[in-house]
Amino acid sequence: MRDQGRLEYRVSDQDGQSFIISLRHGRERDTLDALIRGGATGCTFYDDPAPRWAGNIFKLRCRGLIIKTEREKHGGAYPGTHARYVLLSKVEKVAGGSF
C-alpha cells in the first residue's frame, strides 16, 4: 500500500548535483518546510516553536542537506544564546501538497 503521507523533495548541492529525499508527514518534514519558508533569514525556535529542533536538523543533515547554524544572543529572564538555522541547499518539492 502506498503511503499517502509522503512528499518528495529534490535537493541540489553546491556542486549542482541533485538527489531526491522522501519524507512522511511529521516533525522532520515540518522542520524542512519551516527552513524553506525561512529562506535566507532562516528560522529559530523563537520563530516557530516546536520540540526537537536540533534533532530534526541533525536528521536532515544526515540526509545530505546543508544547513548553517548561527548563534544569536537573547535577553529575558534566562539570557544566553540560541541557534538560527539557515538552509543552504536548494530544495524544491517534487510531488504533492503545498508549503
Task: Summarize this structure as a short list of keywords or feature phrases.
2 helices, 99 residues, single chain, three-stranded antiparallel sheet
List the helices and strands and how they pair.
Layout: E1 6-12, E2 18-24, H1 27-38, E3 43-44, H2 53-62, E4 67-74, E5 80-87, E6 90-95
Strand content: 35-45%
Approximately how much helix is present in the residues? 10-25%
User: In DSSP terms, counting alpha (H) and pi (I) runs of 4 or more, how many helices?
Assistant: 2
- Identify low-pLDDT runs: none
What's the Cα radius of gyration?
14 Å
Instruction: Write down the overall geometry.
Output: globular
Spatial order of the strands forming the largest sheet? 2-1-6
Largest sheet: 3 strands, antiparallel
**Distance separating the two termini:** 25 Å
H and E order? EEHEHEEE
β-strand number: 6
Task: Characterise the protein shown here.
- The chain is built from two helices and six strands.
- By secondary structure, it is an alpha+beta fold.
- The chain has one domain.
- The model has no long low-confidence stretch (mean pLDDT 87).
